[in-house]
Amino acid sequence: MRDEVRHQALSAKGFLSEAEGMRLFELAAEASQHAPCLEVGSYCGKSTLFLAEGCRVSGRYPLFAVDHHRGSEEQQPGQSYFDPDLFDADEGVLDTLGPFMRNIRRAGLTQWVVPVVADSRRLSRYWPQAKLSLVFIDGGHSEDDAFADYHGWSPHVIAGGYLCIHDVFADATQGGRAPYHVLQDARASGLWEDVGQVETLAVLKRRDAPDAETPHHTSRAAAIPLRSARHLGTFPRVRTDAWVMIGQDGGQSIELGDDTLFVFSDTLIAPLRNSHLGRYATRAVPTQPNRQGIFLANSAGVASPTNLRHALAELRYYTDDNGLPREIVRPTKAEREAGIRFWPEHGVLVDGRVYLYYLGVQTVDPRSKWGFRNLGAGLAILDRETGESIRVRREGEWCLWNAGSEDLHFGVQVLRERDDIYVFASVRRDVVCDAYLARVKASEITDPTAYEYLESPRPTWSRDREAAVSLGPSSGDYSVSFNPYLGKYLMVYVDGFDKTLKLRTADRLHGSYSAPVTIVAVPHEPASELIYLGFEHPRFRERDGETIYVSYCQPHFTANSLIALRFR
After folding, report:
1. In the chain, where the domains are located
2. Would you call 524 a catalytic residue per the annotation?
3. 501 closest CA partner among 531, 476, 528
């Protein structure tokens, strides 16, 4: 390593020791002969200089340096690692980009560094299939951030490549635990060989075995042994003497013993005879000349058949006095006048009653297409016979899990294992969604303070929702079930923007879940700019899950579609 570069690196602001930096230099000089290197968390460029100098020595591939340059949580004003020299008082933000670029220029390494000013989590989701020879993780040190970087970037490392994790402390009194937990998870996966640790820098080498079954394996052949994918067309259109179904969103299925409950969000029906709107309809919507459609914010029906298409065709909807489908989770008059409506998520049968999680949304611009905001999630107790529900309230409020500034969907999938209820959730930040998991005893399901949130994959749980760790990528709504044929838990969702069906697998309900595998591009109407609400229906799988059925939705009340997946 050139002396002038080493001196420049040591004088740069940062938290890397010389011994750790020299180890990164050696690894980058070796690895970058085969593919680019990438670091998460460049800060002012100390680690960047060591890594990029190694790339220069190799003379083949550069270093991608990923950082939003606004500092991590612990570097903000008032926190333990805040540096006032890096604070831009005019903008009111931390800004490390200037010092970073100066250090790169002074070291003469601009040709070997590709700066990427972006959020690591978001970038990893849209990173192309280009492989990496080394990934250095030194970004945010919360459990959520550290595991997001691990989940997002480790699948891109080639066989024989390196995963380097900084600030690994086995002793909890010496430093944060998140990097250490990531290291434990990587070791347990079987995908990585431990090649030693220099001070707090842990180094793992990716094994050569292409068929190693690991939490983050992205090979379609090994992770998802798919035989075929078939588009089965759309849901059968339910029709009675009084009304016909035009379209509806959602369609999650909940097992009720011998019956299955299907819950839907926005629903549009057309009356066929002189029916009026009924007291539970949200509003009239023009559908055809001289005919008024009836819009409902939610609806539900029960079916008994074990064949999915038959069940959908024979749904017995909960209806009003006029025989028309009605809402099962209804707003008060004041809520309705405020533009608030409720969308069912998923639920579970406990002691003969259905506990149904739902999302509350409020219209903010009735003239716009997506003019609503997410208020948060609640819980309703549904009578399976009548379809009447009671919304659980705490201190008078229906919203038990406030969305805050994030697009939180709580209760997107609910599984019961003995006395424990596991509740899956999602959080959308910008266009990126992550999955989360909570649990509660069945006897305490109505008490939001009794819920525990997964805070590390070991697993450990916390009553603090802010401590929850991401399970990795998802969509806003998804399904999870145990598939006996695969012997794994299966997460199913659709990517709304690239219009593909994705699967992830895990050996345990709480993960770790594999990196997403794209199974198939889903058929859709040419005008559908978005695909959403993709769910598996485990009740209707065949041969213990060798064949499963997945539904998904499109805008404009287009009939929901079905896909059959058959595994090898």
Report:
1. 3-217, 235-473
2. no
3. 531
Residue 129, burial from CB neighbour count under 10 angstroms (0-12, 13-18, 19+): exposed
Q: What is the model's pTM?
A: 0.69
Longest dimension (CA), the chain: 88
Angle at the Cα of 126 from the Cα atoms of 123 and 129, rounded to 5 degrees: 115
CA 224, CA 250: separation in Å to the nearest integer?
25
Distance of alpha carbon 198 from alpha carbon 22, whole angstroms: 10
Give just the sign of the alpha carbon dihedral 294, 299, 301, 307: positive
Q: pLDDT tens digits, residue range 47-84?
A: 999 999 999 999 999 999 999 998 877 778 877 778 88
Q: From CA 47, how far away is CA 564, in angstroms rounded?
A: 48
Alpha helices in 119-175 (DSSP H): 120-126, 143-153
Distance CA 358, CA 360 (A): 7
* Total residue length of the chain: 568
Pick the catalytic residue from 141, 181, 346, 524. 141
For the chain, residues with pLDDT lower than 50 are 209-222, 277-291, 368-369
Closest CA to 202 of 193, 210, 211: 193
C-beta of residue 510 within 8 angstroms of C-beta of residue 454: yes
Non-local CB neighbours of 378 within 8 Å, separated by 6+ positions: 342, 357, 358, 360, 391, 392, 398, 399, 400, 401
Provide the CATH number for the domain formed by 3-217 in this structure: 3.40.50.150
